[in-house]
Amino acid sequence: MIVNLSTTKKILREFDIKPKKRLGQHFLIDGNVLRKIIDVAKISNDDNVLEIGGGIGTLTEVLLRKANKVICVEYDAKLVSVLKELFKELNNVVIIQADALKYDFNPLIKKHSINKMVSNLPYNIALTLIFNMLNKYPEIKRYIVLVQAEIGERLTIIIFVFLF
């Protein structure tokens, strides 16, 4: 299991990866947070899950154990290589290199019958991506996203203003 600091450091070292601040890259290392995401997402083996920002596969790994299929979209080519290497033996994962802000998910959603999105989003695209996905892809019935506290607060304010 990837979700701990020593394994994360090992993978980063092994693949010579340095998190890119300009891309908002960060890696999940808290198993409690990961379990909470999975619990809230209510993933079953009937679900085909979209993950945006797969990173080094921490969340991907757990999703693959629960879901029928995981479609992982990652922007960084180096991280795409890591994901492909880590999950090369599995047949229930699709890894795509793309800019999620510009990508047309419609063909992917239709082809794979995606019904949930579960992501640990890079902070620099989180708000824009959340609003884009909610507006463009109503076929996805459940969205579970982990964002930085500041993004969560901004999102809460936006929703509050919208509702009232």
TrEMBL record:
Origin species: marine sediment metagenome
CDD domains: AdoMet_MTases (cd02440)
GO MF annotations in UniProt: RNA binding; rRNA (adenine-N6,N6-)-dimethyltransferase activity
Entries under InterPro entries matching the protein: KsgA/Erm, rRNA_Ade_Mease_Trfase_CS, rRNA_Ade_methylase_Trfase_N, SAM-dependent_MTases_sf
Keyword 4Fe-4S carried by entry: no
Keywords of this entry: Methyltransferase, RNA-binding, S-adenosyl-L-methionine, Transferase
Any one GO CC term of the record: cytosol
This protein's name: Ribosomal RNA adenine methylase transferase N-terminal domain-containing protein
